[in-house]
Specification:
The protein is α+β, with helices and mostly antiparallel strands.
Length: 801
């Protein structure tokens, strides 16, 4: 008994699951049925319940909020086991629910009536229920109406179930139709791209498909023949009867079938076609379509006829061939070979005939022979042979071989091959050149990229990606104008139509542009100059005139960041302007002084004339110093000033420099003090002496009378020593401590006129120290003097060989 109940419950749950009700979306129609039941039965509450294995689901409820209840709730189990409306007239007096009645949410229900929801296979899925907080009893009409509405609920479930089934079927059908469309398109593409002739016939013999190879052979378009019989157009009249007989035999199921027939092309010429036919069957295993694939064997058959007619003529033709021509049996044994073929391997005909092809191949290639023999036994084979020339050299031959089958004779293979060894070597060289080109692209410092006709990047070298701030893969396939060339330097948009790079595709000419900007990934721009050269396809198109220009297929752009060059150009312009000013000032003074003397205005004023000569002499000395300083800077900057380094005592260098400036120091009673201990450096003594002299000269110029210039030196470590020159002058502002080392820079512009300097001394000093591998800087406190520091190595570099 328990087993029967368990089976009944399992069947009921399966029926409930089949309708997919529990996972369905809310259905307003169910709410309408619940509301109608409530009105007919004059109750304030109504619901539709679906009884699952352990839960009562409520997809529709009027006057209630609960969406689910436990399986053992209320009188639902009684409804489940009945086939008619179950009523609890007064739950407060019912032995099962007394005295509280049926508690549901905030309601204390005393009346319950449930009409079972019976599926078509008589399974109770749930109940349509009406409820009230007051006792009552449904009359006969209300009971019948509630049962009717219960059947309407089941009808609604059935309807939803059928709709879902239809939707699924429609989606499956759509997927099948899409797959069939894709398959048809794929088959069409394959048929139009294969080199073989392919014709598809229906069972009546009408043409369904006529591929492009057939169009080429026959001269007819597919649209001219589809739906018509082949013998209406392409079969010669005298061959029609045989063609119909052959097709009837094939359509009757004699498959697979191979046969030959003749086609008459649209120009009247006859072609012989070798066909292989098979059938496409339907679900009842009946022939639905006949598919025939063929090859044009007109030339082959003509050659066979010629071969049968004149063996001598054939031999003469073979012997005169400059290719490798031979025949071999289906086991690979050579039957005949032309003289040139044998000689190309350094052998004679007798040395090759009777031997297997494998014997003339390198050891690592002999395993290819069985596969080749299997392929050629099917009718035709093409590929490459590697054969050993006498002496060991391997030659590469491209072959296209044909199986020859003649009546009354053993089948054999006609092998025709061309020695392409040099071509293979050239291809390898080309690949090497391509690899070399790629290496060059990767190693070159300038950015290089290529774009196609749509402006999308086809290749980008690492330098270009680095300059633009991208990875290479982020640029490939992107429109380069929109990515890096979209805006001009002044911020205005840069239309692609105005881009010179795009114009090269039209003009087919190389252009050079030097005043534009490219934009990096981070949104910054940089000045560039670039060369754009169109990529031109040099192979002429069919039908083009001789000498016609090729077709552009893209543009190669090589660009360089010229930001630093522009900065150098500005520095050069500023340098030239400053030098011009510095030269013009003393020259003007010299010209004025000499002009007064030459004009005789100072003949009677010898003292004034002598003063003018002193002015001219002083300005001449200033010019000489300026030119010498400029030459020193040029030699240091270009690396022409070679250092003669040796171990030097710092104290000796300081003493010598002070001695050279002692006369100037005595004029203002300036003293020298030394605290250099026994520090030694590895340096060019003359260059360091020049540096110290320049620093002392500056210190004297800017120090007050009766002050002191002090030299100190110390070791920073075993590799480096620091030398300092202290003065008690007016000091240097903090914002000038670095700029004073630049060319033609002084603390005060008037210092050049008052002190007579050129503004190049400190630039020369820093250049000399940097050439030694050292550093030079200044520190100062206004009104307390300045200190010029520099470092020098203490010994030669250890890595010198």
């Amino acid at each position: 008994m328990e087993t029967s109940l368990a089976n009944d419950e399992l069947q009921r749950l399966q029926a409930l699951e089949r309708y997919e009700i529990l996972v369905d979306t809310p259905d307003p129609a169910l709410d309408e049925i619940s509301r109608l039941a409530m009105q007919i039965c004059s109750t304030p509450l109504a619901l539709i319940a679906l009884i699952d294995a352990d839960t009562i689901w409520i997809p529709s409820r009027i006057g209630l909020t609960e969406s689910a209840l436990p399986r053992n709730f209320g009188p639902f189990e009684d409804v489940l086991h009945g086939k008619s409306v179950h009523q609890v007239i007064d739950a407060a007096r019912d032995p099962e629910f007394a005295p509280d009645g049926i508690r549901l949410g905030g309601h204390r229900l005393r009346f319950f009536a449930g009409a079972p929801l019976l599926s078509p296979d008589n399974q109770v899925l749930g109940a349509l229920c009406v409820l009230d907080e007051h006792p009552r009893k449904l009359d006969h009409n209300q009971v019948r109406s509630l049962e009717l509405l219960g059947r309407q609920v089941i009808t609604r479930f059935e309807l939803n179930f059928r709709i879902r089934q239809m939707d699924r079927a429609a989606r499956v059908r759509q997927r099948v139709e899409n797959a069939l469309t894709v398959e048809r398109n794929f088959v069409s593409a394959v048929l139009d791209t294969v080199g073989a002739l392919v014709v598809v016939f229906d069972t009546a013999g009408r043409i369904v498909r006529f591929n492009r190879a057939c169009e080429t052979i026959s001269g007819y378009r597919s649209s001219d023949l589809v739906g018509r019989y082949a013998w209406d157009r392409v079969i010669p009249e005298e061959d029609i009867k045989e063609a119909i007989t052959t097709f009837d035999r094939i359509s009757a199921g004699e498959l697979p079938a191979t046969f030959e027939n003749r086609w008459r092309a649209s120009d009247g010429s006859l072609r012989r076609i070798s066909w292989s036919a098979t059938a496409l069957v339907d679900g009842q295993n009946q022939v639905a379509f006949v598919i025939a694939t063929g090859i044009d064997v007109t030339t082959q058959r003509a050659a066979e006829v010629t071969l049968r007619e004149s063996e001598a003529r054939y031999r003469q033709l073979v012997e005169g061939s400059l290719g490798f021509v031979c025949t071999h049996d289906l086991n690979g044994a050579i039957l005949s070979i032309n003289t040139h073929g044998a000689q190309s391997l350094g052998l004679t005909i007798d040395q090759m005939v009777g031997h297997s092809l494998a014997e003339f191949m390198p050891d690592d290639r002999r395993a290819e022979v069985p596969a080749y023999l299997r392929q050629v036994s099917q009718g035709e084979a093409q590929g490459r042979f590697h054969l050993c020339r006498y002496g060991g050299e391997v030659r590469v031959l491209a072959y296209r071989n044909k199986l020859i089958e003649l009546p009354g004779r053993d089948s054999y293979v006609l092998l025709f091959a061309v020695d392409i060894t040099e071509q293979v070597r050239a291809e390898e060289k080309l690949r090497s050149v391509i690899r070399q080109s790629n290496s060059i692209l990767e190693s070159v410092g300038d950015g290089i990229y290529g774009v196609d006709l749509e402006g999308k990047a086809t290749f980008v070298n690492p330098a270009a990606a680095q300059l633009l701030g991208y990875r290479v893969d982020e640029l490939l396939g992107r429109n380069m104008h929109e990515l890096i060339h979209h805006t001009r330097a002044d911020g205005r948009p840069y239309p692609a139509a105005e881009d010179p790079i795009q114009k090269t595709l039209v003009d087919l000419d190389t252009i050079r542009v030097g005043n534009e900007v490219f934009w990096r990934k981070d949104g910054t721009s940089f000045s560039i100059e670039y060369v754009a050269r169109p990529q031109v396809e040099t192979d002429p198109e069919p039908g083009s005139q001789p000498g016609a220009a090729g077709k552009a297929i893209g543009v190669v752009v090589a660009f360089a960041d010229i930001t630093e060059r522009r900065a150098l150009d500005r520095m050069k312009d500023e340098f030239i302007s400053t030098v011009s000013h510095e030269l013009r000032t003393p020259l003007t003074s010299i010209r004025a002084s000499l002009g007064l003397l030459a004009g005789g205005a100072l003949i009677n004023k010898p003292e004034k004339a002598h003063q003018m000569l002193d002015i001219a002499l002083g300005n001449t000395d200033r010019l000489v110093r300026l030119v010498n300083d400029i030459l020193d800077l040029e030699r240091i900057g270009s690396g022409k000033a070679e250092l003669q380094q040796s171990v030097c005592a710092v104290e000796d260098l300081c003493q010598r420099a002070a001695a050279l400036q002692s006369a100037n120091a005595q004029k203002t009673n300036i003293r020298f003090a030394f605290d250099t201990a026994s520090v030694t450096v590895f340096a060019d003594a003359d260059r360091v002496l020049q540096t110290l002299t320049n620093l002392i000269s500056n210190a004297i110029k800017f120090s007050p009378p009766d002050s002191e210039i002090r030299f100190t030196a110390r070791y920073l470590n075993e590799d480096e020593a620091q030398i300092d020159v202290h003065d008690q002058g007016r000091g240097i502002p903090a914002d000038k401590l670095e700029s004073i080392f630049e060319r033609f820079q002084q603390v005060d512009a008037s210092d050049s006129r008052a002190m007579g300097g050129t503004g190049l001394g400190l630039a020369i000093c820093r250049g000399i120290i940097q050439q030694h591998g050292g550093r030079m800087w200044a520190s100062s406190e206004m009104g307390m003097g300045s200190i010029f520091h520099f470092t020098l190595p203490t010994h030669p570099p250890q890595n010198l060989l």
